[in-house]
Amino acid sequence: MITFEDVVKIYPGGSTAVDHLSMELPTGKMTVLVGPSGCGKTTSLRMINRMVEPTSGRILIDGRDVAGQDEALLRRGIGYVIQHAGLFPHKTVLDNVATVPLLLGKTRREARAAALELLERVGLAAEFAGRYPAQLSGGQQQRVGVARALAADPPVMLMDEPFSAVDPVVREGLHREFLRLQQDLGKTIAMVTHDIDEAIKLGDRVAVFRQGGHLAQFGTPQELLEQPVDDFVAEFVGRDRGLRSLSFDTAADLPVSPLTDGGAELVLDEAGRPVGWRLGGVVQPTAGVFTKADSLRMVTDLAIMSPVGVAVRVGADGTADGLVRHHDLVDFLATRRDRRAAEQEA
Amino acid sequence: MIQYLSNNHEVVLAALRQHIYLALLPILIGFVVSLPIGYLGVRFPWFYHPLVNVCGVLYSIPSLALFVFLPVILGTKILAPANIVVALTIYTVALLSRTVADGLRAVDPIVTQSATAMGYRRTRRLLDVELPVALPVILAGLRVATVSNISLVSVGALIGIGGLGQLFTRGFQLFYLEPIIIGIILSVLLAGLADLIIVLIQRAVTPWARFQRGGGTA
């Protein structure tokens, strides 16, 4: 757990970068610090590994004040991923990843062996090991950056806009891989971004900062989308936050109608898997199918995209077992809203 | 010319040897001295501009003047090779200190920052990251200094010690073209060869540098 206790940072010249910040970043979770530029999010991140020293207040990692610790030793125990990767241009990919193990006193051989394993983990083939950073694409460099941060298996990782320098398609892929990696590793991560969508997608917790280094709200992505504390957060989170909040609920509780209630014939193959809707003698494909584990947002999307306005649910074996029509969805969302309101009052 | 060479090959070889010695010893000393001076220009930002100015002034002192005045300052004999070595070391330091400082300053701050964040301490960061990354710039400066030194040695002939330059003075005194031509050819070959050797060293120790510009996979 990373704890900020009433942390203030005032730069020489008098500008306040971080203003009485208190928050707790839970162990094994990813907390995303997000906000407009100049809101103190990066300064806050850098105070964790003492790249910046706070003016007052304390920062603790698992109860230990970072201020009392040797800077270099502290940093070797904290993975760090920087924007644009910040790889060493004169070292091969393998030696870049081996950096921290070497600093920790491992032999070159041990460090390289660990590095090779890590490269594989972040999805880079062994053939990249001998290349130099300038020979890699931006996305590949960023993966090496993540591998380098993970090489000594630190419990804590700091990430400073790690995915902002790559194009959206590559970023999407990196996000997916990173989430998978984090699911395996369960690191305590603090990540900075200015992109609220990224924060909501990746964060277990999101800390929204506002100008002047104030923490505006700290909570789960769903809390942020559904209960923004003020207009600033509401606006920052964005207009379609209602729709986006549907990403966080699964379709498990969503009631379904029988397969015959679709308004058109649902054509199944011999195994009972949906093929399409028969419309005027032609079979039009369904827009896709969902399972109980998928999100309400996906169900909504399927219902909108479907040629008959109906989303088809399938079981684990892929056979169709129920339908959700537009108005089923609307009814469900209404009860969901009422339930939420009751919960909030309680 | 062949005739001249066969009659005087010992004189020519001795001149060449002296030339190499007088040009390259200052390069070695100058390189070793410039590294810490250049680093100070980066470590203490206030020191950079004085450093650049002093280097500029030193380099602009005419070599002949330096050759003549150094014995006075150092207390050496006017014909001592040490005068040439010290003078050329001064020029080398003037050229290279600035190059070292500029090379280190040109290291991408993202790279130094990420090194710090990995847990490098200052000295190890300098040796393991900053100096190697600055090496292409430093070696480019070393090429300039080496070629410059090889040409400056000849001026020393005017005060009696100048490697191949002695072939020029001899030629002028005797109204004899051969030694002058041989001196010029050997000077140029020596400069070219020294430059080539540094380029080869550069390729060997900074294999990554050729990917830096142009980009893409090679």
UniProtKB/TrEMBL annotation, chain A:
Pfam families: ABC_tran. Keywords: ATP-binding, Nucleotide-binding, Transport. Residues 2-237 form the ABC transporter domain. GO terms for molecular function: ABC-type quaternary ammonium compound transporting activity; ATP binding; ATP hydrolysis activity. Its EC number is 7.6.2.9. SMART domains: AAA. InterPro entries: AAA+_ATPase, ABC_transporter-like_ATP-bd, ABC_transporter-like_CS, P-loop_NTPase. Gene3D superfamilies: P-loop containing nucleotide triphosphate hydrolases (3.40.50.300). SUPFAM superfamilies: P-loop containing nucleoside triphosphate hydrolases. The keyword Signal does not apply. It comes from the Bacteria. Belongs to the ABC transporter superfamily. This is ABC-type quaternary amine transporter. It comes from Actinoplanes cyaneus. The lineage of its organism: Bacteria, Bacillati, Actinomycetota, Actinomycetes, Micromonosporales.
UniProtKB/TrEMBL annotation, chain B:
It is a multi-pass membrane protein. One of its GO terms (biological process) is transmembrane transport. It is found in: Cell membrane; Membrane. InterPro entries: ABC_transp_perm/SBD, MetI-like, MetI-like_sf. Residues 16-201 form the ABC transmembrane type-1 domain. It holds the Pfam family BPD_transp_1. Keywords: Membrane, Transmembrane, Transmembrane helix, Transport. One of its GO terms (cellular component) is plasma membrane. The chain crosses the membrane at residues 20-39, 51-72, 78-96, 150-168, 180-201. It comes from the Bacteria. Belongs to the binding-protein-dependent transport system permease family. PROSITE patterns: ABC_TM1. This is Glycine/betaine ABC transporter permease.
